[in-house]
Amino acid sequence: MSSSDRKVAVMPDKSKKHGMLVQHFYGKSRVRMTKLSRRPDRHELLELSVDINLEGKFEDTFITGDNSLVVATDSMKNTVYVLGAKHDFDSIEDFAKILSAHFLQQYLHVEGANISITEDLWQRIDLDGKPHQHAFFGAGAEKRSVTLKETRQSIAIESGIDNLRVVKTTNSAFLGFIRDSYTTLPDAKDRIFGTTVSARWLHDGENSDFNTCYHTARQAVLEIFATHASLSVQQTLHEIAQTTLERCPSIKSITLTMPNQHRIPFNLEPFGLENRNEIFITTDEPYGLISASIART
Amino acid sequence: MSSSDRKVAVMPDKSKKHGMLVQHFYGKSRVRMTKLSRRPDRHELLELSVDINLEGKFEDTFITGDNSLVVATDSMKNTVYVLGAKHDFDSIEDFAKILSAHFLQQYLHVEGANISITEDLWQRIDLDGKPHQHAFFGAGAEKRSVTLKETRQSIAIESGIDNLRVVKTTNSAFLGFIRDSYTTLPDAKDRIFGTTVSARWLHDGENSDFNTCYHTARQAVLEIFATHASLSVQQTLHEIAQTTLERCPSIKSITLTMPNQHRIPFNLEPFGLENRNEIFITTDEPYGLISASIART
Amino acid sequence: MSSSDRKVAVMPDKSKKHGMLVQHFYGKSRVRMTKLSRRPDRHELLELSVDINLEGKFEDTFITGDNSLVVATDSMKNTVYVLGAKHDFDSIEDFAKILSAHFLQQYLHVEGANISITEDLWQRIDLDGKPHQHAFFGAGAEKRSVTLKETRQSIAIESGIDNLRVVKTTNSAFLGFIRDSYTTLPDAKDRIFGTTVSARWLHDGENSDFNTCYHTARQAVLEIFATHASLSVQQTLHEIAQTTLERCPSIKSITLTMPNQHRIPFNLEPFGLENRNEIFITTDEPYGLISASIART
Amino acid sequence: MSSSDRKVAVMPDKSKKHGMLVQHFYGKSRVRMTKLSRRPDRHELLELSVDINLEGKFEDTFITGDNSLVVATDSMKNTVYVLGAKHDFDSIEDFAKILSAHFLQQYLHVEGANISITEDLWQRIDLDGKPHQHAFFGAGAEKRSVTLKETRQSIAIESGIDNLRVVKTTNSAFLGFIRDSYTTLPDAKDRIFGTTVSARWLHDGENSDFNTCYHTARQAVLEIFATHASLSVQQTLHEIAQTTLERCPSIKSITLTMPNQHRIPFNLEPFGLENRNEIFITTDEPYGLISASIART
């Protein structure tokens, strides 16, 4: 039954029809699960926040309040824990695949399943040079993430890094930009470059080695950020993208978003001092924002 | 010069070319401006946060670090204050139009300007039943917003409300949904319905009466939320959308997003008490999430 | 049994005793309860977040891990809902009294109960000029709060307002402050004065009319903020405190904390324009912070 | 001139005197400074947020609006950058001492200076096993902090760690607590123990080796948390405190605050599965809260 067929069928009250439903989804967000794997030699800890959205033949509940085709979002929540218990998996990408496959198989009127998972990163506490078997500390605001969109025809898996904060104190310039009546910024030959990297890479197919790819991409971000002789945030972003594509053959494209989190030289002249590029006001806002997608050629 | 011409010209190092730039934008975010209009009888206060993104012929800075076509994001920031000072405007939509027109006129290599503005809502302090001439209190987390996308061919203005928190304590049910092996939620004939409405409406053209439209839409949200006999969040959302389209003729479509912020009945049985639908655990997560776009027919 | 007696008894390993427990408390925080009162003509909605801390003879669990005197914090959580269900109350102060009395009566080794409650403020939706019977919208970030400290000898109830954001666009100056080699701020004859008021008032006894007192204090804050000819944030704060003490006879003292949330004039000179005290940079940080306690004489 | 002398002198309007100023302070908060030290072999990066509060003879500005003794908070902000530029220091404790000494020396009517500094922790990016000379990544939400209170008679320096998130997946129990009509929590022989440690230690004098002390204390927190056979959060907290006192001889006392951030076993029985202590709901609220101060004997 097509969406337009349906519309005719369910329209109960013509006088109220000022518009038609052109897009809709629903689901459960922030389902947080701790999964503990008690291995003989060590414990593995996975802490996830899962968002599920379904698309499909759900017009009735919008138009008439008939819920007979509605999967309760509470049931979606249950499903996360039940499938989390039933299955072994070693990446959030694999768990996202398990979840989306479930919803498409279990409910024939579901046309698309969108699964987003964010992973809290825990690091083993180091004691006497050895990683502890079951004690961890929080690795910070940085997260690993995946967004999977599956329909009955296709699947797209985009993995990523959120909130990777980095700063370099030299080897970054910004010169030769447009100078007109709206410009007051001086050229900077040597500036601090601070950003919080968000990276998203689209896998070529659904069977990448997700974990290797993640670690390779993360290392590329750190290495290129540290070593690139930067003429602009844009250029460094582009170089990171090129290097990631080079090192991760199973990635089709990558999107990087990098705010320019300014450190502004404090004017010490009124106090009879010279600022030798050493004292800065740390700011959160306003901030520059640079984003680009680079696709494999 | 076409984008593909450009690419050939600047490719300096073939060995590094693993991908091509398929999408990019950059700009300044969180430019916060207070604009005060000192009228004879009262002061008008406008507090805005502006995000600007430009699209256009900016490939060089990505690929070679040549910034000669780059409008510094610091200059974008200056532009907000300069145009904010030069122009009178009485809505964030009008200011967004002034800003986007500026960037397209001033810089011929800019192909698209995207302006998002969020307005802090201040309410006059009431003294002896009269609104004060120059003293205000914060109306809360709720914001008014606009997102404008302008190219050399088109303009799209989407206005909205963010973070409008509402709750109703009866006249909401959720019954008859799919009951299978993943379901534990009981039917609810009378539940608390709490949500935080986000609404975005697309204007038909660029000369709507933005302020009337905003106030009409906001009142429709509140009225329908309060009075609708709700069989599902979806149905109430749909009814709000239909009513807004009915009352605001210049709107082409509306997108509503409404989380279901659950109040869970606390189980008083272990304590020898009955919960007569009066005592609940207030929760933030997990939450349901319902979203739909309704377009005028 | 005195605390020092106890220490001798439980000290299991002298070599580990490098310090002694000089202060300790424990409890449950962020217990969130929605209480709905279904009145014939309207519903009353109360949404609270409760923090409970107990002090008393809890040294054993610290020193030996013997939990036999420990009230589980999970039981404290249960207690909030159970007492919330059993009792009628019309202010958070009264609920705090019910809770603290319970812990002191139920557990003889508890020496002090500290209860903090924060109330989300909901306002009835207005339809056709009438407040709705069961539909509400969120009144913002502002909260009502109480902190109650009860021991077997005494009780102190401090009520308050958190996060009341206000701004006035004139009738505020800041002149004649110390001008030395660290000063760059010019005198301001007419500045914007924006703040977020936090107020805490200590009741004289435990049987104040808490609701009247709250509404009177809140109105005093708004009225004096709006009308005071301010020579400094300090002076306005002091005037608010004096007026609150004047109007609320059952208050013993009041503490006000008011950040100075600066709006900084944007320098339009580089752009050939004059800033007639109308265009400002809205900032969150850094901010001034002024705090004082005023006690009834 | 004593405070009571002053009060008589400035009281301009007896009718308004309903209370007297019993406590007051003011200052500047969130002064954020990046200090870069360009060493021959590497760059040192320090990113701080400084809060300054002064106490002293500031009654006039409260009572009459006379600002002649007021150090503008804007000047305090300038002072942070000026003294940050003038002085070398290798800990936030030393910078706090420089700042407080300045305010007490520069302004004779200042009676107390309270300086709080929070340090963002940056870690060098590791390339080929070597820490990079000038590129860093953010070590997370964890901060290092100091609070210094100096008067003309005394100085107290309290250093600390904020937001150190840790979790252990076994070796933690909670048994034998009070079981009464408010109790539903079962005994737990083996539970996940997750917390976010806040530690504050008071130095004995003002010339501790602050950096060694910080690293020793932080390692003690991690080591004891990981290895302690925990019978309660309280007991682990106490053991951490004892060990820190043992290893840091220059510490007089330590205060630890540790929320109990619950992972709640998900009930898999309705789904025909057994939860072998492996699948949990991760929660933020409500949470237990344990705090204690342990002083050297």
Structure overview:
Four copies of one chain form a homotetramer. By secondary structure, the first copy, chain A, is an alpha+beta fold. Chain A has helices at 3-10, 59-63, 73-86, 92-106, 210-227, 233-247, and strands at residues 19-38, 43-56, 110-127, 130-151, 155-168, 193-203, 251-260, 263-265, 279-282, 287-296. Chain A has an eight-stranded antiparallel β-sheet with strand order 1-2-3-4-5-6-7-10, covered by helices on one side. Chain A has a two-stranded antiparallel ribbon with strand order 8-9. In chain A, helix 5 (210-227) runs antiparallel to helix 6 (233-247). Chains in contact: A-B, A-C, A-D, B-C, B-D, C-D. At the B-C interface, strand 1, strand 2, helix 3, strand 3 and strand 4 of B face strand 1, strand 2, helix 3, strand 3 and strand 4 of C.
CA-based shape of chain A: globular
Q: Averaged pLDDT of chain A, please?
A: 94
Largest interface, with Cβ-Cβ < 8 Å?
Answer: C-D, 84 and 84 residues
**Which sheet architecture does the biggest sheet of chain A show?**
8 strands, antiparallel
One letter per element, helices H and strands E, the order of chain A comes to HEEHHHEEEEHHEEEE
Strands of chain A, count:
10
Multimeric state: homotetramer
Strand order of the largest sheet of chain A: 1-2-3-4-5-6-7-10
Low-confidence stretches of chain A: 1-15
